[in-house]
Amino acid sequence: MPVAIITGASKGLGRALAEALAARGWDLVLDARGAEVLKEAAQALAGHGTRVVALPGDVTDAGHRAGLVAAAWELGGVDLLVSNASALGAEPLVRLDELPPAGLRRALEVNVVAALGLVQEALPLLRESAAGAVVVVSSDAGAEAYETWGGYGASKAALDQLAAVLAVEEPGLRVWAVDPGDMATGLYAAAVPDDDDPRPAPESVVPAFLRLLDERPTSGRYGAPALVEGR
Fold first, then answer.
1. How many Cα atoms within 13 Å fall on the side-chain side of residue 124?
2. Quick check: pTM over 0.70?
3. Which family does it belong to (predicted)?
4. Which residue, 195, 175, 176, is CA-closest to 184?
5. N or C: which end of the chain has fewer CB within 10 A?
């Protein structure tokens, strides 16, 4: 069975994607900071009959990242790495003149530095895979200027650039940066708690990620809504 590592997998988009992959027979290594919620998610996913390893921890911890890759190696390797774990930098979001430097550092550490660190750890196994792929979850805040989204958006713009360069340096892999669009997630609720407008469930954009895995288009940046509409 193919093996995927998914960070931020206890809820939201990470949990929804893990569910879809488990239903397809993928073995999974899952990460999240909340041990109990992650354990519950892993138990539910194991109901599909696949192997699921849940490792709670912080992706900024190099030892934790090494543990995720070691667990995947035990399952047979790494065919897909999904960097979904994200930090906002401030909750709720604030304008740049109020953004704490420590918050910006946290966003960069989680969204950029840890994502690259995990790729570096997994690269030997990804290169051995017949269909190795890296997915980084981006945001339109990384491409557009939205008030209060500056720190988070800067981190996602940096992540997009890392993904683009990785694709050039590793032509044997597929490297996709995916902007999932608006979703009803805990991250968005923490970012803008006063915004109660209805938003799509994370499950609604999962077909976009599955389409990338099925069709394996060239490496690049993709918008999930366009991928879903194009099916």
1. 7
2. yes
3. Belongs to the short-chain dehydrogenases/reductases (SDR) family.
4. 195
5. C
156 as an active site residue: the answer is yes
Mean pLDDT (the chain) is 97
Q: Is 11 a catalytic residue?
A: no
pLDDT at 231: 59
Catalytic-role residue among 152, 155, 219, 222: 152
- Report pLDDT for 8: 98
Catalytic residue among 10, 86, 129, 138: 138
The number of angstroms, rounded, from the C-alpha of 31 to the middle of its chain's C-alpha atoms is 10
Joined tokens for residue 180:
């999932």
Task: Give me 91's structure tokens.
Answer: 């909750």
What's the pLDDT at 230? 77
Q: Token pair for residue 103?
A: 């918050």
Mark whether 138 is an active-site residue.
yes
Q: Which pair of tokens denotes residue 216?
A: 């394996």
Q: Taking Cα atoms as reference points, which of 64, 48, 45 lies closest to residue 56?
A: 64
Q: 83, 86, 155, 156: which one is catalytic?
A: 156
* Contact (Cβ atoms closer than 8 angstroms) between residue 193 and residue 88: no
Contacts of 100 (CB under 8 A, 6+ apart): 89, 90
Closest CA to 7 of 91, 116, 103, 127: 116
The answer to whether residue 214 scores a pLDDT higher than 90 is yes
The string of DSSP codes covering 73-107 is HHHT--SEEEE-----SSSS---GGG--HHHHHHH
Q: What is the model's pLDDT at position 208?
A: 97
3-class SS at 231?
coil
Beta strand 133-137 with 52-56: parallel, antiparallel or unpaired? unpaired
